[in-house]
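re: the backbone from monday

yeah here it is again, tokenized this time
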């Protein structure tokens, strides 16, 4: 169960890249200090509960590898596609309520990524999430979408959100994807939970601010 949960988180990281160019080397990952995430490139800040776990770059890389293995299996072409997708995105942060090795049935987490849109042309966050939706429907998740793509404000900025239920075998995982365009990048946020976003996750989202 613990290994499957880790692979599920990694799989979500792998499918986020939807369309775009190679990520610019000038973009900042941001930093976490004193339970606060800041990113000067996006002018973004966010508070993190002291009890939550920050997933470091080494763990993120391992999760991405697990996610690729789960989705691609022995399909070399699909693996190559996912490897290319890694070059198109910048993983900004991953945080989870419990450590990855915790023996829990559900580990609520939040992931943020940025994808370069240079050379893509005009693309709205709603169109971006529609492409993501199609990718999930064509994948191995038996994905279901209980609602439509809707507008939402986060930190005063206009985002679009998409609710989903992914199935890893018979295990359902509820997720909400948020997307906004900032400086020719899609800023994507994934919130994963059991049936409904937890109060702590909502508190984290409410703490997000943009300059």
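seq for it, each position gets an aa:
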């Amino acid at each position: 169960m613990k290994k499957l949960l880790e692979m599920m988180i990694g799989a979500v990281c792998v499918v986020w890249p939807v369309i775009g160019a190679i990520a610019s080397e000038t973009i900042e990952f941001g930093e976490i200090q004193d339970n606060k995430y800041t990113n000067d490139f996006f002018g973004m800040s966010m508070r993190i509960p002291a009890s939550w776990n920050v997933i470091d770059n080494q763990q993120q890389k391992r999760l991405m590898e697990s996610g690729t293995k789960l989705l691609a299996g022995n399909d070399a072409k699909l693996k190559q596609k996912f490897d290319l997708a890694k070059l198109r995105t910048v993983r900004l942060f991953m945080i989870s309520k419990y450590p990855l090795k915790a023996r829990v049935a559900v580990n609520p987490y939040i992931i943020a990524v940025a994808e370069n849109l240079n050379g893509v042309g005009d693309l709205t966050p709603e169109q971006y999430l529609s492409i993501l939706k199609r990718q999930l429907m064509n994948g191995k998740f038996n994905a279901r979408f209980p609602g439509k793509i809707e507008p939402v404000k986060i930190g005063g900025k206009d985002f679009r959100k998409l609710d989903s239920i992914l199935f890893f075998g018979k295990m359902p995982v509820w997720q909400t994807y948020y997307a906004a365009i900032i400086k020719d990048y899609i800023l994507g946020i994934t919130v994963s939970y059991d049936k409904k976003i937890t109060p702590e996750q909502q508190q984290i989202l409410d703490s997000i601010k943009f300059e």
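The chain has five helices and eleven strands. The longest strand covers residues 157-168.
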